[in-house]
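## retry 2 of 3
previous attempt timed out at serialization; input unchanged, resubmitting
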Amino acid sequence: MTPSERLVALGLELPPVARPLAAYVPATTSGGQVITSGQLPSVQGELVATGKLGAGVSLEQGVRAARVAVLNALAAAASELGGVDNIARVVKVVVYVASTPEFTAQPQVANGASELLGEVFGDAGRHVRAAVGVASLPLDAPVEVELVVEGAATS
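## retry succeeded, writing output
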């Protein structure tokens, strides 16, 4: 199955590319790779959750937010490559988790993004990753996700 077929089988579709909040582009191509800007967990312009993990945002809400944010990042990457089926491989994922100092489950939150990429791309969705706890994120989002993917033409 292609990535687009897997998305359909999962009952998902890529959203429109989110408009930047400031002076940057959603994604750019360099040397056959697409690097996305940080993407928030928004659906139709609205965050699916706000606040911090460990202070009002549950682990389950964080995992869901990471899934939504990675879909937005995939949309940005796919727009650079002419579609999600032109993504040959996921190279790197960075997941920022707004959390209290006591919260230490950032890797489990990031699994929301990583596991979805595996479901969509199979082995080509295996990637290196960082899960980083931060004090705050734009718009009080609980999660922000960046992707680096390889385009099909360079695989």
